[in-house]
Design brief:
This is Hemerythrin-like domain-containing protein. By secondary structure, the chain is mostly helical. The N and C termini lie far apart (about 35 Å). Helix 2 runs antiparallel to helix 5 and helix 4 packs antiparallel against helix 5. The protein has five helices and no strands.
């Protein structure tokens, strides 16, 4: 593979939403020496999986043929399922634990609310396409994705 192709592929993986970079990751110390740094590193890895998945949806949306629609929609729905699972775990387990340790989690909760409705609208659209109630539309897919992904990725970077 040529250098220009490699660079191009990397740029696609990192656009339109940039991944998270941390100066202290990978965390090479012992977890009990700096649990906060370890947790930040682990969260950045998970968040980058989500960000790169959103970028994959974005870039592939325009390439989907009629034959490719079912697997593409299935992939996008799996990404949404992973986002739901991640944030449900945070809201039910991590946020209460942090709040119990005296950390104010209200900003994180508000950021979850900021992308919730947009994510639900995107999921509803994908479900309708999956059930053949709507025809797949690349422009609409990107529009709906951007509505929720912008505030979601902002949240992932802040968290």
């Amino acid at each position: 593979m040529s250098t220009s192709t490699s660079t191009h592929s990397s740029e696609l993986a990192d656009t339109p939403w940039a991944p998270i970079t941390l100066p202290s990751y990978p965390f090479l110390g012992k977890v009990n020496e700096d649990p906060a740094a370890h947790l930040a590193g682990e969260m950045s890895v998970v968040h980058n999986v989500l960000i790169r998945s959103l970028n994959a949806i974005w870039h592939n949306a325009a390439l989907v043929s009629t034959r490719d629609t079912p697997p593409f929609v299935g992939y996008a729905l799996l990404v949404l399922s992973a986002i739901h699972a991640h944030h449900d775990t945070e809201e039910k387990i991590m946020f209460p634990a942090f709040a119990g340790a005296g950390i104010n989690m209200e900003e994180n909760i508000e950021q979850h609310r900021a992308f919730h409705d947009g994510m639900e609208a995107f999921e509803k659209y994908l479900d309708q396409v999956k059930r053949n109630e709507l025809e797949y539309d690349a422009v609409k897919t990107r529009e709906l994705l951007k509505i929720f992904a912008d505030p979601l990725v902002h949240h992932l970077h802040e968290e």
